Amino acid sequence: MQTSGLGVLFVVLLALQVGFQPIVQREYIREGADTTAIVLATEAIKFCISLVGLFLSGSFSEALKGWSLRDSFNAAGAAATVYAFQNLMIQTAYQNMDGLTFNMLNQSKTIFTAIFLYTMLGNRQSKQQMAALCGMLVASVLLSQNKGEVAGRVTSFRYGVLPCIGASVCSGFASAVSQLALQGRKRNSFVFTMELAVFSVIVLFATTLVSGKKLDFNEMYSGWRLPNMIPIFTSGIGGVLVGFVMKYAGGVRRGFAIVMGIMLTAVLQYFLYGAELDRNLMIGFPLVAISTIVHIMYPVSVPDAKKKKQ
User: Fold this and answer.
1) pLDDT recorded at residue 103
2) Cβ atoms within 10 Å of 30's Cβ, excluding its own
3) d(Cα 25, Cα 52) in Å, to the nearest integer?
């Protein structure tokens, strides 16, 4: 698919948010903070930002016209459930794989996104775009190595490789479902983000109850101050931006934005904390730039797309 100027803008904004988020998180979220509390607060902020945006855009009545719970679940409920399974499999895989193998397989989610977009929406990739996807896959693996890995960890095929591949498949499928709702069914981005936030909280509560963990909100948010909400707010903005990227640029370009954000984080850590800029980053930087430009400039031509359908 061709990306409009608006789509490129949202991709850049999402890349900036992804890049700055770890820095903001490090500065304002104390180490060992309850992850459930962070997720719940983020989803609440995401919902509120989208609600305000829906009012300010003047499309509140039009966007909710004909709204139904069934359509809402088909659009966002399914995606939220799949994302929950993805997170579960990611945690399982990470504990049973060495860092290099995990990063290589985990970055295949962009490839699976392209596959599901083709099977579900008929969105093809040109030869140049396929080459760009491969370049971005290599770059993302290189950049991920900057995070470090746990030494001595043995990779298990059953509990490591299979769950990691399953998580990538889930990510690709959820991205395709989201893009189908936003582009195919023309669902409002703000409404979709609000629905996804609500269903994500429902899934989180359900999985928490099944695990037997008790939710004590007083304990979860003990010690929180107003500055702690800064990374929650920026993360909420990121969630809203994801909806716009999916609608105007697509799931594959969202993957590009995330990789560019990882690269930005590495650069920021160098300037702010004196982190080392290693060889992987030096290789990954031009690879990301070239892959992004190629993927945007060489979409599938309309005549070729029509020929394939015949």
Assistant:
1) 66
2) 9
3) 24
